[in-house]
Write a structure and sequence with these properties.
mainly alpha; three-stranded mixed sheet; 8 helices; globular
């Protein structure tokens, strides 16, 4: 067997290696600062996705017709609406319109809103009343109350509004300014509804006759839409009777 001599330096290294655990407990090793490359992570937290950017603010909604400031130009005539008018019931649209059944509460509110149309339009000059009723029917027809068993009633009002507006447009008096109704809101008169078309004096009698026929036809449509439902019959009759006040206005 041959023996190989080991240099003394190796013996020193081995001795030092054996004492490294003891030295490590007493010597603080310097922290190496390594420059990061682009995309390199510094910790596990950095691996989480970046937060979504804040959404851009939605634009301000356009003001509805009732809230727009009145046009003070001489092309408009303003009429103050009576106070205390009822608003038609506006239930939330929940996508289950087929489950909405005719009931006394909704029918009372709808009937009151129809009767209020006559009260709202009565202070106006007779030249503006037909289009005033048309504008009220338009507003009522847009209400979400006309769902489920009320759907046919809503369609009848929408059809009547379109026909009444056609009567006013056909007999329009271009020499007269457009009219509009205002309502008191906290002591300030605010526009209520759209501008109203005046009817020529010479055509007013014929226009009122045509408008009366439209309202009467709407009542007939309502009464024929009840089907075999006793519940619909009771509620639709009440809505049809509410239109009588509008007929009285057209005859006055």
């Amino acid at each position: 067997m041959k023996y190989v001599s080991v240099p003394a330096i190796f013996l020193v290294i081995l001795n030092l290696a054996g004492s490294l655990p003891t030295m490590a407990s007493h010597v603080a090793l310097p922290r190496l600062e390594v420059p990061l490359m682009q995309g390199q992570l510094t910790s596990c937290d950095d691996a989480s996705p970046e937060p979504d950017p804040e959404p851009e603010p939605e634009p301000e909604p356009e003001p509805i017709d009732e809230m727009t400031p009145p046009d003070t130009s001489p092309t408009n005539i303003w009429y103050q609406a009576p106070t205390g008018l009822a608003k038609i019931y506006t239930a939330a649209c929940d996508g289950v319109s087929e489950k909405v059944t005719a009931n006394k509460g909704d029918t009372d509110r709808a009937s009151k809103a129809i009767e209020d149309a006559a009260e709202l339009c009565a202070p106006l000059d007779s030249a503006y009343r037909i289009d005033c009723l048309a504008s009220r029917y338009e507003a009522l027809a847009r209400s979400p109350v006309w769902q489920g068993e009320y759907e046919d009633a809503g369609k009848a009002l929408k059809s009547a509004a379109k026909k009444l507006r056609q009567v006013a447009d056909t007999a329009r008096d271009a020499s007269q300014p457009m009219g509009k109704v205002t309502r008191d809101r906290n002591g300030i008169q605010k526009p209520y509804g759209r501008r109203l078309t005046p009817i020529k004096p010479a055509a007013l009698a014929a226009a009122n006759t045509a408008a009366l026929k439209i309202v009467e036809e709407t009542q007939t449509v309502l009464l024929r839409s009840v089907g075999n439902s006793t519940r619909r019959q009771v509620n639709y009759q009440q809505i049809a009777m509410a239109l009588d006040s509008n007929k009285v206005l057209l005859r006055s």
